[in-house]
Amino acid sequence: MKHIVKIMTLLVALSALWISLLQTSIIPESYTWLLPLYFIISLGCYGLLMVGVGLMRFPTCPHEAILLQQDIVEAKGFLKGKGVDIGSD
Amino acid sequence: MVMISDASMEVTEEKNKYSIIVPTYNERLNIALIIYLIFKHLSNVNFEVIVVDDGSPDGTQDIVEQLQQVYGEDRILLRARPKKLGLGTAYMHGLKHASGNFVVIMDADLSHHPKYLPSFIRRQMETGASIVTGTRYVKGGGVHGWNLMRKLTSRGANVLAHTLLWPGVSDLTGSFRLYRKSVLEDVISSCVSKGYVFQMEMIVRASRKGYHIEEVPITFVDRVYGSSKLGGSEIVEYLKGLVYLLVTT
């Protein structure tokens, strides 16, 4: 099944649920009308939260830059010895 | 960092050969460094390096020919093209000349460090996965050289992509990957995007087709030279790519 079909099915199911809530009035109607809005806002807040948390916990590796420089020196030394003309960068 | 023992890999890897495809454009210095590091870290592995150079004016191909003298023409294959023809076609071109049963794709600019190659190979052997992709965004991985803005866009893009696509991998735009050769051939034939959306399309299509995908943490040291290419047009391209993937995969 294509992904978009999965998403559409989910949305249709949610819409059906919402309409049935409207019809049967388990929840007061004024509140039910606002449910989709609440849903979208919650989704947005969740997204922002995930971005914020991810940003705080973003893995960094400053030591890797140093290791890389060491590797570059080692590589240049070896290659020069083998006559590969790397020249200067 | 833990050094992975190569002894356990010797027994089974006689049957496996790894073709490492490295597309290049003006990477005269970096290609030499990358090749040295690949040979250093894969000393017990049967592999070949396929350099797909798009007619670099800086002499990249001359350097590769010199490296062939040092390491052997059977270990380093130079399969050049006349001009810049795009990343996807570079992989396809390299694939045609690959004699291994596994294919690694990686960048030539040293943002992908060859020292992770043994961990890709080992994870594939342990799990039998069809694809092993490197991820920068988990513990053990990481990025260096990105400012706050860059990290923010990356994280925002990632959350958006995950919400829309449910891809099953943590790093969608990464291009440091190991593929079973048959799997790469299958996936690449159905991809049409360009640039990093292409990398996303590959992994999403593979995920949809049900291929077993594993992830290993990698560190990514961004280019020190040159500016970070993340302007408004890149963001628009990315969003268009997301919608395209949402609808067609």
TrEMBL record, chain A:
Pfam families: DPM3. Keywords: Endoplasmic reticulum, Membrane, Transmembrane, Transmembrane helix. It is found in: Endoplasmic reticulum membrane. It is a multi-pass membrane protein. Pathway: Protein modification; protein glycosylation. InterPro entries: DPM3 (IPR013174). It comes from the Eukaryota. One of its GO terms (cellular component) is endoplasmic reticulum membrane. Component of the dolichol-phosphate mannose (DPM) synthase complex. Belongs to the DPM3 family. This is Dolichol-phosphate mannosyltransferase subunit 3. It comes from Penstemon smallii.
From TrEMBL, chain B:
Its EC number is 2.4.1.83. Pfam families: Glycos_transf_2. GO terms for cellular component: endoplasmic reticulum. InterPro entries: DPM1-like, Glyco_trans_2-like, Nucleotide-diphossugar_trans. Keywords: Endoplasmic reticulum, Glycosyltransferase, Transferase. Gene3D superfamilies: Spore Coat Polysaccharide Biosynthesis Protein SpsA, Chain A. Its main location: endoplasmic reticulum. GO terms for molecular function: dolichyl-phosphate beta-D-mannosyltransferase activity. It catalyses: a di-trans,poly-cis-dolichyl phosphate + GDP-alpha-D-mannose = a di-trans,poly-cis-dolichyl beta-D-mannosyl phosphate + GDP. It is found in: Endoplasmic reticulum. It comes from the Eukaryota. Pathway: Protein modification; protein glycosylation. Residues 19-187 form the Glycosyltransferase 2-like domain. Belongs to the glycosyltransferase 2 family. Component of the dolichol-phosphate mannose (DPM) synthase complex. PANTHER family: DOLICHOL-PHOSPHATE MANNOSYLTRANSFERASE SUBUNIT 1. Transfers mannose from GDP-mannose to dolichol monophosphate to form dolichol phosphate mannose (Dol-P-Man) which is the mannosyl donor in pathways leading to N-glycosylation, glycosyl phosphatidylinositol membrane anchoring, and O-mannosylation of proteins. This is Dolichol-phosphate mannosyltransferase subunit 1. It comes from Penstemon smallii.
